[in-house]
Amino acid sequence: MPDRLHLTGTLLPSEEACELWVVDGKISDEPVAGAVTIMTGGWILPGLVDAHCHVGLDSGGAVDRATAEAQATADRDAGAMLIRDAGSPSDTRWIDDRDDLPMIIRAGRHLARPKRYLRDFAEEIEPADLVAAVERQAAAGDGWVKLVGDWIDRDLGDLAPLWPVDLATAAIARAHELGVRVTAHVFGEQATAELITAGVDGIEHGTGLTADGIAIMAERRIALVPTVIQVGLFERFAAQGEPKFPAYAKHMRALQAGHRGILADARDAGVPIYAGTDAGGYQRHGLIGTEIARMAEVCGAPDALAAGSWAARSWLGRPDRLVPGERAELVGYPADPRADLTVLTGPRHVVLGRTHSFLHG
Fold this sequence. Notes:
By secondary structure, the chain is an alpha/beta fold. The protein contains eleven helices and 21 strands.
């Protein structure tokens, strides 16, 4: 890639006509001699955000470095330059030294009970050990801890919470003492309500949200990452479990059927909503454009774009605009993505640091 690039286009969300340069991987708003013009016209967004992603993980657990690199590269080429890794058993700290790969904000490893989550994903502990485990994962992450809030209970034959409310409350309080936020995987109604009451900072999936829970989330600014494309797999999960656990299968189908309505209600109530694909378990990487487009069907394109770009960046402590002197993190589209959602799955230009990918040309 040339060390000096030049772009013009309409910058979102400001809708201003802009002219930008990239010099040695950093944004400049001053003209630079010898820059190669890579984009004239089109629409430019700050780098996209996948707020629920698992680099270093696939359906079998931890992956090797080459596979993790391929995952991160696929996310980057889809436009995702900031990832909140919502639990991974792999050490991906080496990515921090790569200017050509997304920045990762980690949540350590999932915390779950033995035989109450996917094998080889989580640190498995008994409830009495939850506070100590939160302390370990707080030290391993980048300001987040991830709880598995519910999973199928084989004796019950349906979803059930993993943690007693008093222990979850104590663990979340300890995380907050350490300056760490806690997010939770939850599908069902009971665990979702209990963890909101316990003081959690984020809800992943949120298919079991009720009106009361949504109201509390809006008041407390608890984030929702709805993982719309992942919830689209619930029918598959239901069919797999149905022979042994028909109540679970029925429940999962009902949760899937109600998800769009929950997302609309959360949007209307003012709940902070962010885009995440859940890539790395049973979802392939590089789907952030698809996730934003699916969210836009319910939330509208402007809100969905914010959820997958500037608003999510601000939530995670990164600049919500292109700042001179900062690492270049931008995505260029040939058409206005607010009017044409199809372009979200095919960015024309992805510029991350010193890396420029010309795609779908």
